[in-house]
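Exercise 3.2. Students should predict the tertiary structure of the chain below and write it as structure tokens, then compare their answer with the key that follows.

Predict this chain's 3D structure.
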Amino acid sequence: MVRTALTPEERQRGERFGALLRQARGDRSMVEVAAAAGVSAETLRKIETGRAPTPAFFTVAALAGALEVSLDELVAACAGDAEGAETALSA
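Answer key:
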């Protein structure tokens, strides 16, 4: 099965999502958050850097739980523009 290439908008959304995770992680280490979510640190690193812009739903849900961020907050922040994404989690 061949995956279709991601659009520039999909890549940008993945980058916004990664930035949101980094912001929500704050001072916690990547290893600590990954362990709490039950994913590898490499998976979290790829998501945070935008190299994995379309993570699986259960991965996103696990990270949201570990970071104590609601899925609704993540959706709202990622659906908007980059400026809205930066302030969405701090509200």
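Discussion points: The radius of gyration is 13 Å. The first helix runs from residue 8 to 25.
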